[in-house]
Amino acid sequence: MKKLLVLIFLWLTIALPVQAAPCRTLNNQEICILTIKRSAKNYWEYRAQVQVDGEVRPLQVYDCRKKITVQDNKVLELFEQDGTAEVVCSFFKPPRDAFGVASGKPRSFRGVSDPIPNLGR
After folding, report:
1. 94-113 per-position pLDDT tens digit
2. Does 10 reside within a domain?
3. Which domain covers residue 75, as residue numbers?
4. Residue 82 is assigned to a structural domain of this protein
């Protein structure tokens, strides 16, 4: 009987993880990301399904570099002004290289344009 009570107590006290959709409020609209996947090849592209004020939108590809969305029927659209693209594009930060540059091309090395100066040979 004690074992049964302990089992019931443990079962009731253990909290299971919950999948919550990350939501933000922009322009008096609640925008929730239901599913999101980042492209392995192009880190600036995201496949996301978004819910705006309870209305679920179809899966779209968000190109955060060109500021366009690609729908299932291959129609290209510019980002809408409702803020969904900003929420999707701000979900992940772009990867950074060893120099801390997001584009992968360091512009300077500790303030010097050439890390190995010409020694005047």
Report:
1. 555 555 555 544 454 455 55
2. no
3. 20-89
4. yes
Token pair recorded at residue 9: 């107590």
Task: Give 65's contacts (C-beta < 8 A, 6+ positions apart).
Answer: 42, 44, 45
Structural domain count, the chain:
1
Q: Is the pTM of this model over 0.90?
A: no
Q: Are 89 and 62 in contact (CB under 8 A)?
A: yes
Note whether residue 39 is domain-resident: yes
68 occurs within a structural domain: yes
- pLDDT digit string, tens, across residues 24-55: 888 888 989 999 898 889 888 999 999 998 89
DSSP per position, 28-50 = TEEEEEEEEEE-SS-TTEEEEEE
